[in-house]
Amino acid sequence: MEKQLATTLFESLASGTRLDVFRLLVRQGHAGMVAGDVASRLGLPPNNLSFHLKAMTQAGLLTVTQEGRFLRYRANLAMMQDLIAFLTAECCADDAGQCEELSATVCCPPARTATS
């Protein structure tokens, strides 16, 4: 990950509301949530939430799919893992043994497809 992308992602999360939205969507994993449910869960006005969802989607932190008249948002878990890897890439570079408890495990299993 390039430093500029990491900076963009951190700027996108530099709001309490956006951080709450992202963490909620991370908890939902691959299922994601429709925007109205996110607004209800967090007690946010829909127009306020829409502004935040758009910014986070443009930064690449979220993906969005149309489902009829609803928009389903999902945390971009791969991007999140890349950002974590960027932050920890040089962890304990002078003494790698200090960081043995850190692992590169994926937080969620891959999404199931209709055939799996």
What does this 3D model show about the protein?
By secondary structure, this protein is an alpha+beta fold. It has a single domain (3-91), classed as Winged helix-like DNA-binding domain superfamily/Winged helix DNA-binding domain (Arc Repressor Mutant, subunit A, Orthogonal Bundle). It has five helices and three strands; from the N terminus they run ααβααββα. The chain has a three-stranded antiparallel beta sheet. A hairpin with a 2-residue loop joins strand 2 (62-67) and strand 3 (70-75). The chain is elongated and about 50 Å long.
Secondary structure blueprint with pairings:
Elements: H1 3-12, H2 16-28, E1 33-34, H3 35-42, H4 46-59, E2 62-67, E3 70-75, H5 77-88
Antiparallel strand pairs: 1-3, 2-3
Helix pairs in contact: 2-4, 3-4
Question: Characteristics of this structure?
Answer:
116 residues; alpha+beta; Arc Repressor Mutant, subunit A; 3-stranded antiparallel β-sheet; 5 helices; 49% helix
Gist?
By secondary structure, this protein is of the alpha+beta class.
CATH fold category name: Arc Repressor Mutant, subunit A
- CA-based gyration radius: 16 Å
Largest sheet properties: 3 strands, antiparallel
Q: Which CATH class?
A: Mainly Alpha
Quaternary form:
single chain
